[in-house]
Amino acid sequence: MPITWIRERAHRQVAWVRRRLDPDRPQGLWLTSAVTITALCVWAFGMVTQDVVAHDGIAVIDPRLERFVVMHRTAAATGLMRSVTWLGSSVVLTPLVLLVGGFFIVRRADHRPFAMLAASLLGAVLLSDIVKPLVHRPRPPARFDISAHHVTGFSFPSGHATEALAVWGMLALLAAAKMPRRRYVPIVLSILVVALVGASRITSARTG
After folding, report:
1. How far apart are CA 85 and CA 188, in angstroms?
2. Cα 180 from chain centre
3. Same domain, residue pair 41 and 115
4. CB atoms within 10 A of CB 195
5. How far apart (Å, rounded) are the C-alpha atoms in residues 194 and 84?
6. What CA–CA distance (Å, rounded) separates 203 from 66?
7. Which domain holds residue 12?
């Protein structure tokens, strides 16, 4: 049988794969899933960046979506999105990282969650600050901005969306590890938060 032959010839490799897919091991299924998702996100980010630089692909749809959103704004939706967008702001995410990380340090003497959250936030900030001047994509016109003050600088990648994805995504992974029977709950909630933050940046036409 081919499976028996593989087990006999590559038993070390098979054992390694089993460990990587074991949901009960810290370095098992969840770490493998996190690495795989990260690789897919990096690939997707690279593809979108390429489109933005070349003014092709998905970047062509962006101005049309912007005009559609601006034409269909409502006061209620605008007020809601002004509040939601703070979930991707460093003003909210930094204290959140300190609180959650501090809880694990004080209550469980575990520094790893804080280190992971801090690395996620710092990495997102650095990514945004490094890529923005390289891509050099301008922000939408000032007349589209519904905020109290017009933000200057470049728009891609969105700092709010990038930081929200990094921090809320890492929080979801940490929470899922502590909720073996309801692991999908924090994952779904984090996806919802990130999607809302991204939508809030489009709605307000402040894509940075």
Report:
1. 18
2. 22
3. no
4. 13
5. 10
6. 8
7. 1-56
